[in-house]
Amino acid sequence: MTDRGFKVDILNDSVKFYLPRVEGYLEIVRDMAFRYKGMSLIEFDGYFEGKMEPTKYTRVEIHTNDVDENKMTEVANELRIRLKQKSLAFEFNNKLILVGE
After folding, report:
1. DSSP-assigned letters across all residues of the chain
2. Rg of the chain in Å (alpha carbons)
3. Domain 13-100 CATH class label
4. What is the residue extent of each domain of the chain?
5. Does the predicted TM-score (pTM) go above 0.70?
6. pLDDT band for position 75 (cuts 50, 70, 90)
7. By the 8 A CB rule, do 40 and 58 touch?
8. Closest to 25 in 3D by CA, of 72, 67, 84
């Protein structure tokens, strides 16, 4: 609490994971909601890997402090494997990173 009567938390880092809506993605979203302090979800159609038909994706944006980019890259690769994907994209502080096999 401050002398103004309210508390302010500033979360400096933003990580956005672009998860395809395939089997297992909802469990990953639940894990992230439990682990991180702030999170937002946006659903969209994505045209990745040269596909003409859209795939449903969920952008999971987490807000936290003191994120290590290398650790997030390892986490993204683990998510890619869990979701049985050839690649998985994530954005770290406005830098798009694509992790593939």
Report:
1. --TTS-------EEEEEEEES-TTHHHHHHHHHHHSSEEEEEEEEE--TT-SS-EEEEEEEEEESS--HHHHHHHHHHHHHHTT-SEEEEEETTEEEEEE-
2. 15
3. alpha beta
4. 13-100
5. yes
6. very high
7. no
8. 84
